[in-house]
Amino acid sequence: MENIFRNFLKRGKYRITPERFEILEAALDYNGHFGADDLFIDLKNKKSPISRATVYNTLELLAQCDILLKRNFGDNITRYESCNTKAGHDHLICLECGKIIEFSNPKVKKLVKEVCEEMQFDFSNYSFNIFGKCKDGHTHHFEFEDSHSDSK
After folding, report:
1. For the whole prediction, is pTM greater than 0.70?
2. Which residues lie across from 120 on neighbouring strands?
3. What is the number of alpha carbons within 13 Å of residue 77 lying toward its C-beta?
4. What's residue 135's pLDDT?
């Protein structure tokens, strides 16, 4: 991943700094979905001198070069996840507690393919999010968590 990012930075004439690669490593090591502030706090807890602005800017670059995927789960917070750590998956998002449950179902993938064929649409990617209430949503306050964080 470092070489992909380094080449992307060179092509775009962006500065190649150790801070950007520290953020890359932290992002790829993060368990589950994360926001820029989550990663910034994680880095600060590890005594990193990296600024919040550098985290935000670098995450944007990592998404542009397809190392990270940007996700929005309806709470106006951009979250990220690695492009390489999981096969395609979809999300159940609890509107009560913010829990994010990842799932993969071949029926969903088949439906996407069928709809695109029917509509003569050549898709490159899709995102499928189901919003609702999980079975224990009433016991939590609104804080996003990733139920499959152990899969990274």
Report:
1. no
2. none
3. 14
4. 83
| Kind plus residue range of the DSSP H or E element containing 3 | helix 2-11
Fold identical between 2-82 and 90-151?
no
Tokens in use for 12?
Answer: 């775009």
Neighbouring-strand partners of residue 73: none
In terms of Cα–Cα distance, which of 115, 61, 108 is closest to 87?
108
CA distances from 49 to 37, 43, 61 (A): 14, 8, 19
Amino acid present at 137: G
In 3D space, the residue among 5, 73, 77 whose CA is nearest the CA of residue 36 turns out to be: 77
Q: Does domain 90-151 have CATH number 3.30.1490.190?
A: yes
Fold of 2-82: Arc Repressor Mutant, subunit A (1.10.10)
